[in-house]
Amino acid sequence: MKTLIAAYGGDPMRWPEDERDQALTLCHRSATLQQLIKQQQKLDGALDDSLLTNGLSVESILEMTTPPARPVDATTSESDFWNWLLPTSAYQWWKPAVLASAPLLLGIVIGVNYTEESTDWSALDSIVFSPVALGENYE
Prior knowledge:
139 residues; mainly alpha; elongated
């Protein structure tokens, strides 16, 4: 209950609706919680007064504290890729090496896992190495 009061303040209307009725029932039963609510209401009032005397509203404070949205740059992902692929520091050269070795590793994995019942390559050899395929002209 103390966490609820500290988080949402002393005004029960600022408390979450699904917890408000149960919290108010507990507060009416406990003198300590009533005292805590009064203290929090004083603090809330002092904060509200200081904001108003400075000419600040809650909305203007949120605008000042919220960072501006980052503009979406179409080249950001592309430039990030190139910066990753071609690093400027020496200790990051492992990245392009890993990328370059990926096709080799893929070939090894496919080669190890490939099982062909027939290992007769003569039909394929006759097609690939035929005179027509080699560009020889026998007329």
